[in-house]
Amino acid sequence: MSSLSVCIIAHNEEDNIARTLESVQWANEIIVVDCESNDKTTAIAKTFTEKIYSRPNLSNLNVNKNYSFEQATCEWILCLD
């Protein structure tokens, strides 16, 4: 059976992150890369996954997206923007 990692990068998404993470609870793992949020994004994400990483908030979002992919351990990756 295939396994799936869901990768999300976030910056100040406290209004959306819970709903988003709730919708992917079926995945084998959820990876959140927080990009220097100064709201409750990280605290909320911690209620859904232990795999939370902090990275600088870069203008080139692909750097942090690729970082999230590197943390994934499953066969497939679903990246949510």
Features:
81 residues; alpha/beta; 4-stranded parallel β-sheet; 26% strand; globular
Structure description:
This protein is an alpha/beta fold. It has helices at 17-22, 41-45, 61-71, and strands spanning 4-10, 29-34, 52-54, 76-80. A four-stranded parallel sheet has the order 3-2-1-4. Helix 2 links the parallel strand 2 (29-34) and strand 3. The chain is globular, with a radius of gyration of 12 Å.
Low-confidence stretches: none
Secondary structure: helix percent: 25-40%
Shape: globular
Physical arrangement of strands within the biggest beta sheet: 3-2-1-4
Q: How large, in whole angstroms, is the Cα Rg?
A: 12 Å
Counting DSSP H or I runs of 4 or more residues, the number of helices is: 3
Instruction: State the separation between the terminal residues, measured CA to CA.
Output: 26 Å
What amount of the residues lies in strands?
A: 25-35%
The major pleated sheet works out as:
4 strands, parallel
> What is the total tally of β strands?
4
Structural class, by secondary structure, is alpha/beta
Q: Mean of residue pLDDT?
A: 97
Could you give the order of the helices and strands?
EHEHEHE
